[in-house]
Amino acid sequence: MQNFRLASSLNDKIYFHLDSLPGVVTKLNKIMAFFFGVFLGVSIGIGLIIAFARYGKIRSTRRTDLARTIAAFARLTVQDSRKILPRQFYPPWVVFSQRQKLGWLNVQLEKIWPSVDEAASELIRASVEPILEQYTPAILSSMKFDKLTLGTVAPQFTGISIVESESGADGITMEMDMQWDGNPNIVLNINTKLGVSLPVQVKDIGFTGVFRLIFKPLVAQFPCFGAVAYSLREKRYLDFTLKVIGGDLSSIPGVSDAIEETIRNAVEDSITWPVRNIVPILPGDYSGLELKPVGTLDVKLVQAKELTNKDIIGKSDPFAVLFIRPLPDKTKRSKTIDNQLNPIWNENFEFIVEDVSTQHLTIKVFDDEGVQGAELIGCAQLALKELEPGKVKDVWLKLVKDLLVQRDNKYRGQVQLELLYNPYGTDSTFKNPFDANFSLTSLEKALKSPNSETEALAPEKAGQKKREVIVRGVLSVLVISGENLPPVDFNGKADPFVVLTMKKSETKSKTRVANETLNPVWNQTFDFVVEDALHEMLIIEVWDHDTFRKEKIGRIVMTLTRVLLEGEFQDNFTIDGAKSGNLHLHLKWSPQLVFRDRDTQ
């Protein structure tokens, strides 16, 4: 019995433990799941942190590489771009270089050319015809358009650029390189003074140049600019043929050249920069875009030296032609100096300046051949932007054969100019040394005198009298010494002396002779009474003295402008025409101003 109870008790305990086993397993599963979740979450978090860190590093590296790539592209030149991207892969909107004849813009222009032809023909007729009448030569009585169309061949644009320096804050300035080999139908109805009517056809036009478009002012209303001004900024090449319909133009002497010159003058005066033709787009006042004078340029043509001899017998007979715009009424000509390769002109000219930033002064020196015309010796050009307003600039310009194509390096001589740019609105109570109508601040010291009249005079109208300042005074010249003069005598020495001449008054003085020396010392002072210093010149000649003859060593030619400006100065001057040597001079000016009235009619 007792054994039975023991067995029964053991069975009950076993059954009890077997009944509680599922709960224990469940608790173990939960504990294991918790630890697994914690492990998994930590692993995923660490993985995300590592992934984000790597992504940030990769992104930073990509940004650095992209920045380097952009910087590399920014440094690419046009030649580098052509190596990377061949022409067959260029997009259609790219405007190609001058060798590429067609681009997107040229294709579009060809499409609209018939409409452009009609509008442009009417515009040219209206603007050019009055100018043709203005420049009609004396042998013709009238010149008008009979027919005017630009033909079927559109111009080709070979380049476009934005001129940032000229655009400003309220406008855009664009320049377009253009070439045109057109087939226009242009017929001029020309009547001569002899009563002959000539229908002259202008054909075979060839043109290359740069057009400038100015979109100004910029506005908030479509098309975002108020007006457009157009001009021929640079005329590189212009050629055409004249033909009389049903006849020969050469049968009437001089007519062909006169018509060609008239056409070129009309192109220059109607469309060539700085002329601007304004087309209003939106209503408004666009007078600010119109061509207006900004100042005057005073030019003293001093001299030339070592000019090329164009004559077989004797020497050239040079004269000079000066202009800013090559129009007949804006071109100045000097007098002719006969039989001279080192001419002294000492002439003053005045020009109107309309755009100092782009215009040039051009000088051409010719040999006067009389009835046979003139032969070009050489030409030179100076940009007006190189001049400082109100300051006289003394320059020597080297002459060349051609200003555009400078392939000929032959020496043709030099020309000396004194230039003074006077912008309108200069405030000064003293007179310009070249023209009394404008003021010059830098001359105040030189022209100031207790007895001088100093009232400022505004520019006078035509037909009225002007005040002309006559600068009278005493010029003192101290001839100090010479240095390194060329040997003239057989003993390798020289016996130099100096002759001083006032060109206009022909007053002369000379130093004593310094015997047997190439480095003479004189220390002699000469006083000259000068009646008109603005137009006077001092010529200093160095001679070698011998018993039976005198030999000229060289000379120095100078205007009085510097001594007028500075009052007194001392300097070394190179002797022109001598192999070596210079003179040491001291000049002093004591002024006295005189005013007189002169009639401008």
Automatic annotation (TrEMBL):
Keywords: Calcium, Lipid transport, Lipid-binding, Membrane, Metal-binding, Repeat, Transmembrane, Transmembrane helix, Transport. It is a single-pass membrane protein. It is found in: Membrane. PROSITE patterns: C2, SMP. Its main location: membrane. The keyword Membrane applies. It comes from the Eukaryota. Residues 98-282 form the SMP-LTD domain. The chain crosses the membrane at residues 31-53. Belongs to the synaptotagmin family. This is Synaptotagmin-4. It comes from Gossypium hirsutum (Upland cotton).
